[in-house]
Amino acid sequence: MKILAIETSCDETSVAIVRDGRHILSNQIYSQIDIHKLYGGVVPEIASRNHLEKISQVVDSALRAAQLTFDDIDAFAVTNGPGLVGALLVGVNYAKNLAYALNKPLIAVHHIVGHIFAALTENAELQPPFVCLVASGGHTQLVVVEDYQKFKVIGQTRDDAVGEAYDKVARTLGLPYPGGPQIDALAKRGNGDAIHFKRSYLDKDGYDFSFSGIKSGVLNYLNQSRQKNLPIVPADVAASFQEAVVDVLVDKSLMALQNYNLQTLVLAGGVAANSRLRTRLKAATEAAGSALYAPSLKLCTDNAAMIGCAAYYVGNTKKSADLALNAQPSLALDRA
Ligand code: KG4
Ligand code: ZN
Questions:
Q1: CA 177 to CA 208: how far, in whole Å?
Q2: Mind listing the pLDDT tens digit for each residue in 253-275?
Q3: 134 three-state secondary structure
Q4: Pocket test for ligand 1, best of 88, 112, 117, 136 (most atoms within 8 A of CB)
């Protein structure tokens, strides 16, 4: 079963071909980051126009990289939400056209389910049940993956997503978009204990997150230091902010493993690329006798291979295309 998958939910135009859910035959990613950098964040209208310009090219290059033609493809898959509506529509319409013209099945995939399954493509032995920490620019969720088609969201952010907090703090430090990798790099030269930013656990026994407080804490620290003419060490600010965020993510993930009696933690989403989060989670899961699966960096941020993998497990590969499929910008995971 070879699935050609399309992902255009935000600022990456990506097309992949995945065999039997686990083998990536090609995974082409055209990133628009350099364009959006000029504006300090993703501009939705510009994102849709760029997807439209690039999509055909990226589909062709995915086929060429896998040395396949459309005849070899058994089904098409596409992210239909959540994401930017104009951006999603480009992928959804392109996939619908391909499925209709070539008379092949079309599978709609939830973007977060894609992220959750990214680690499966690199680890043959990995299978549910497991706990997944989804940490991206738009979402922060703890999900118990009971089976390939059974997801239970046990906690999520009540305000900012963790990647959003990274991006906003980076911007206040004068760093370019996307800020996550910038803070990650800068923090390596700083002291994570230099400044104490308050950790927000909300209900200590619950799994919900809040990151707007930590973000405001950094802003207040910078403003007060400037007012009092005190020196600011950006690397220390970055490292201390990161330590506060990572403390909460690690503690709640480990609590979920323990309370749900599971031994496997899977990391997903753009922030899964964070080196400090990966190191701390590795140590914490090892100490607890659990396993950690973190995708390679290319599979953490948005890509179509994860969509092709998820499509194999959640979709009906026999059913023909439903041409009523639409983009759903706020598609919830519970409804996936
Ligand atoms: O999953 P993703 O590619 O897009 C969404 O679905 O949101 O995640 C993008 C987010 C951005 O906020 C970016 O700053 C963050 O992931 N990110 C990182 C790192 N690499 C990407 N955050 C912290 N450390 C990183 N190394
Ligand atoms: Zn994403």
A1: 27
A2: 999 999 999 999 999 999 999 99
A3: strand
A4: 136
β pairing state of 23-31 and 12-19: antiparallel
Place of tokens 């104490």: 196
| Ligand with minimal distance to 160 CA | 1
Report which residue type is found at 103.
Answer: N
> Is the minimum distance from the CB of 305 to ligand 1 under 6 angstroms?
no
Strand pairing category for 12-19 and 2-7: antiparallel
Q: Whose CA is nearest to atom 16 of ligand 1?
A: 270
- Long-range contacts, stretch 291-295, CB < 8 angstroms, 24+ apart: 291/263, 291/264, 291/265, 292/265, 292/266, 292/267, 293/119, 293/123, 293/126, 293/130, 293/264, 293/265, 293/266, 293/267, 294/119, 294/266, 294/267, 295/118, 295/119, 295/121, 295/122, 295/267, 295/268
Q: How many angstroms is it from 113 CA to the middle of ligand 2?
A: 10
Q: How far is Cα 30 from Cα 32, in angstroms, rounded to an integer?
A: 7
Q: Which ligand number lies closest to the CA of residue 12?
A: 1
Q: Which of 271, 274, 299, 306 to mutate to test the pocket of ligand 1 (most atoms within 8 A of CB)?
A: 271
pLDDT in tens, 52-89: 999 999 999 999 999 999 999 999 999 999 999 999 99
d(CA 237, CA 172): 11
Residue among 242, 328, 274, 271 nearest 141 (CA): 271
| Among the bound ligands, the one closest to the CA of 136 | 1
Helices 85-102/44-66 angle, 10° precision:
40
Q: Is 179 in the pocket of ligand 1 (CB under 6 A)?
A: yes
170 close to 192: Cβ distance less than 8 angstroms: no
Which tokens in the block code for residue 83? 């994401």
Task: Give this prediction's pTM.
Answer: 0.95
Q: Which helix (H) or strand (E) holds 216?
A: helix 212-227
Task: Give all strands of the β-sheet with 264-268 in edge-to-edge order.
Answer: 150-156, 140-147, 130-135, 264-268, 291-293
